[in-house]
Structure prediction request, 300 residues.
Amino acid sequence: MKKLALVLFVSLMVNTLFAQPLKPYILGFETTENVSDVAKKLVTKLNQNHIEVVGQYQPAEEEGRWVIIFTSNALKEAVQEFGGLTGFAAALRLGITRENDKTIVSYTNPVYWGTAYFREDFEKVSSKYAMLTSHLESAMKASGSFDGTPFGSEKGIEVAKLKKYRYMMGMAQFDNTIKLGSFDNYNAAITHVGASLKKGVPNVNMIYKVAIPGSDLTLYGFELSGEDGETKFLPKIDISNPQHTAFLPYEMLVKGNEVHMLHGRFRIALSFPDLTMGTFTKIMSTPPTIKKMLAKLVKD
Prediction:
């Protein structure tokens, strides 16, 4: 009964937030502990609060950064309900960053990303996101002094615009995905990707994999290394504080017999909505580079 009351309260809070402009990240807490110790503590607290850690790594090879990728039954159930491209919502990310002699913990705002990926159907899964939000906040409070401040955009993005988000006219939207390849069926697609990973693909390292039970959806996340990878583009776009460490890793979705990635001009812009066109111009080569790197996973 107490748990139900808590979920209903958080659901009310989510609906209240849903009426306001949304920002891509939430500030969890700050601490003087080092990144490694904070990461170990968070993995434990997340797992204790019904959140499944599916992967973690050091993005852009920076010692002061760490990313933890997680999913939950609530997220998986939301994706099961609608399927298709909502498979990209199967995992969220938590960033740990050393900034100004402090370790800052932040995470992707569930309501922001859920709205962007479920769009007009988000209200139908908002109770599941309320459950996840409650569990995340409990994990943060068990790990440090919870802050809860949204960040990543000065003014935020209105809900109606986020459901149809594009950085500017002519740019990609959520459903303007890039199809990297197609196979005879879902099992053939999964088998091929698995074989490519086992063989090894230059500068592409799998960080996590989330299969949605009872569906033909599997979401993967990859570290992109090498001279054209994360070390090249992240420093050019992650230029504000707190930093957007939870932006990475980049995803690829097996949907039925097809393999898709979100267009870089959507996925990167959604993560950094306030960046100027001048800044984005500095990484014009990044979206096609990411496509080229991930496409190697589906080539013969």
